[in-house]
Design brief:
This protein has about 475 residues and is mostly helical. It contains 22 helices and no strands. Helix 18 runs parallel beside helix 21. The longest helix has about 35 residues. It is globular and about 70 Å long.
């Protein structure tokens, strides 16, 4: 009987203000490594690699080797917060932002997971449509086939996600195997069609017909960092279930960094190979994965692998999106929230059919990520590591008029710091060094960290003093 109860505890999802005991944790290093490799080794990262191909293959490698260590070291820091405090990302936000104030980042976080699901699904929909039309005939890009493909992908993703994190980790292991096969196959096809010298030597500047598209190194870093910070916003949702500090920090850091580097290079190599085969013309507006795999002659199996890997990464987005909405309204069960996220994501996945250009839609989405999430993470890190010295009390995460209430449920200093940091993202393009070298995303992160350290110090000190006073009383 006790064993049955223990197994039920291990399988269930804990509330935001409920500490996860060590004997109820089930994520080990292997599962975390595979989960976070798969989180980044996916069709969306591949698509980002095709866009970054404008930097040339060497430029993509440089941007990845600079951006990945920065953002995934930050991911490890937040991962440790989840491991130690045993709450979700949005639960942790209750401390610096206030119990009510945390609902704002929760709403934006839920929107980003809806957006990622929509982006992932639209990219994979062309692959699934290719599979469907191979049996039924018709146009791959017809509205009917794309709609059917989007709905099928989101249905499978949502149904799987609602069963909880334990099943997601098992699905990720399968997905990683598929992704290894896909990347090896892509690499083989690329190097049988185009020499490494041609790939490495190709440059946007050497092809005058590429006047409609350009990208700076700072812009490339923004793509890497915006994607990475989006994952940082959900890492604690998983590390609260990890069995060791190493599983919460080292393995997700290396897994995510490796997956990102791997598929950015795969995506860039494929796009550049297609450009070389097309006389040097680089066209990111035609860089959907079905087109690239078709041009490389990869056949139907590649499209199947694209669909499988997309479903796997969508599970993470739907699961974390469900817990973001749970922080907004605790009356809404997390699993029902996941269904809502999946439904909205399906609508987002269909939006390019109305808006026209998928690339333009995707760039607007990246701007949203780059403006708001690095600033939010900066506040979380400064509050936990510098202002409160890792002193969080999860039992007070839902206590009205407790230490995280700040008088009205909102820490105004955190909100002000957040919007100052987000605003600096839009100022950064006017600063030549920032826009061309370090990018707007990291600039926004640094500005927010400094501003919150100055503005948030008194509120954090008062909150800590109130908590200790009530404890001793």
């Amino acid at each position: 009987m006790e064993n049955n109860n223990a197994q039920q505890n291990e399988a269930r999802d804990y509330a935001i203000d409920e500490y996860v005991p060590m004997d109820a944790r089930y994520y080990g290093g292997k599962e975390m490594m595979s989960t976070w490799i798969c989180a980044n080794a996916n069709p969306t990262t591949w698509y980002m690699g095709t866009i970054m191909g404008a930097l040339g293959l060497s430029g993509v490698v440089i941007a990845s080797l600079i951006g990945n260590p920065i953002v995934y070291f930050i991911l490890a820091l937040v991962g440790f917060m989840g491991y130690k405090i045993a709450s979700t990302n949005m639960g942790l936000c209750r401390v610096p932002f206030g119990i009510k104030g945390s609902k704002l980042p929760s709403m934006l976080n839920a929107l980003q997971f809806v957006g990622w699901c929509g982006v992932n699904t639209y990219i994979a929909a062309t692959a699934l449509s290719t599979i469907i039309t191979s049996f039924t005939g018709g146009d791959i890009y017809s509205a009917g086939n794309i709609i059917l493909s989007v709905l099928l992908i989101m249905l499978v993703s949502t149904v799987t996600a609602v069963y909880g994190a334990r099943y997601i980790s098992k699905a990720q292991v399968i997905a990683v195997v598929c992704l290894v096969a896909l990347s090896v196959w892509i690499s083989y096809k690329v190097f049988t069609l185009v020499s490494f010298a041609d790939l490495w030597g190709w440059s946007l500047a050497d092809n005058p017909e590429n006047t409609s598209w350009s990208l700076t190194m700072g812009g490339g870093l923004d793509i890497v960092l915006a994607n990475g910070f989006a994952w940082v916003m959900c890492i604690a949702d998983y590390t609260r279930y990890t069995t060791s500090k190493r599983a919460a920090t080292v393995w997700p850091m290396f897994g995510a960094a490796f997956g990102m580097l791997w598929f950015l290079i795969v995506g860039a190599a494929g796009a550049i190979a297609v450009a070389v085969m097309n006389g040097g013309l680089f066209d990111p507006y035609s860089a959907d994965l079905a087109y690239i795999t078709g041009t490389l002659g990869m056949g139907m199996v590649a499209n199947i692998l694209i669909v499988i890997s997309t479903i796997a990464v969508n599970m993470i987005n739907i699961y974390s999106g469900g817990f973001s909405t749970a922080n907004i309204s605790e009356k809404l069960p997390a699993k029902l929230s996941m269904i809502a996220v999946g439904t909205l994501a399906a609508l987002i996945g269909l939006s390019p059919l109305i808006l026209g250009s998928f690339l333009d839609t995707f760039q607007v989405f990246l701007i949203f990520l780059g403006a708001f999430f690095p600033a939010c993470i900066a506040i979380m890190l400064v509050d936990f590591y510098l202002l409160r010295k890792q002193d969080y009390d999860i039992t007070k995460f839902n206590v009205k008029h407790g230490p995280y209430w700040y008088g009205n449920g909102i820490n105004t200093m955190a909100i002000i710091s957040w919007f100052v940091g987000a605003g600096s993202y839009f100022v950064a393009p006017n600063l030549p060094f920032v826009s061309s070298i370090i990018g707007s995303v990291f600039f926004s992160f640094l500005v927010t960290a400094v501003v919150y350290y100055v503005l948030g110090k008194s509120a954090a000190t008062k909150s800590l003093d109130d908590s200790r006073l009530k404890t001793t009383a």
